[in-house]
Structure of Recombination protein RecR:
Amino acid sequence: MANRKVAGPEIERLIQLLARLPGLGPRSARRAALHLIKKKDQLLVPLADAMGVAVEKVGVCSVCGTVDTSDPCTICCDDGRDPSLLVVVEDVADLWALERAGVLNARYHVLGGTLSPLDGIGPEDLNIASLVERVRNGAIGEVILAVNATVEGQTTALYVTDQLAGLDVTVTRLAHGVPVGGELDHLDEGTLAQALKARTRF
Amino acid sequence: MANRKVAGPEIERLIQLLARLPGLGPRSARRAALHLIKKKDQLLVPLADAMGVAVEKVGVCSVCGTVDTSDPCTICCDDGRDPSLLVVVEDVADLWALERAGVLNARYHVLGGTLSPLDGIGPEDLNIASLVERVRNGAIGEVILAVNATVEGQTTALYVTDQLAGLDVTVTRLAHGVPVGGELDHLDEGTLAQALKARTRF
């Protein structure tokens, strides 16, 4: 806060930890801490409880690699999902984003990152072997590679495709093109080129 | 998240509670929750602990009305501060902001809001009686009314001044004027008028 102390070290520590959350800076962390303290019963107590529960219960699903409070996770246990459709994502955040889109009724496989030789991340650091195993053993008809449209994402997709070659499965990837609501004027040349190449009949 | 569940209710609840923090919306709350879960040992565990400590220890100082883990608070117990200088603020956030400015070496009195007849907030809802008592009993030479430059703040300042009339104390208020770094072109007429009226010799 300042050089002089305005409150006990416990409050300073709470502010410092809150400031490490994405989206909160030092200033908003102070505001959040004060808000929590003022709304002790309505917010601080329940949030402390919820975090305690998360500490205790949250883990990684041994089947798909997402985070959940049960193992296998909620999605892997959901019998209402199509067992033949498997969506491969880099990260849990991508899984959540795709679920919000609400188009698919599939299961997922979280790689846990992308191949990045410069950062020392090789195939053995990602959940690729377990993906191949899952496809080999399961009744999976299609694997959708829903990775980011970055160099690392596409490199990883290529590698995964290679690993799945020879197995009886169709491998697909997301369409590239103009984002819904996007203005051509603001798009980069690469996206426009892809959108033109992949044009469809009106 | 979506109509279909992608994780156990404990994670959903964590996200919902995080979304109630100022500065975090539903989207950033999801990001924060995922960040916490991924950084379990480095962030989630310490933050849950810090919140637990706050739940247990944080309270309101019986002397000045700020929040702290001790009563009387860190500031009220700080012998290095000038006991004759008392700064009256609306809220704990204002106290913290003034301490960051680092100009004063004073003690504080937190009113806990402003007079607002429309919202049913009268003098008895604020820490005004305790302020008068403190000034009457203490060796306080100057009371600085550091309230917001809003109608409610100024009304409250007037009322407090009235209550302190007759006591042997100088009551002062913050200067109005051009904010440091401010451009005249962007300032409202009221601020400019005050800055002109209170002009000082160069």
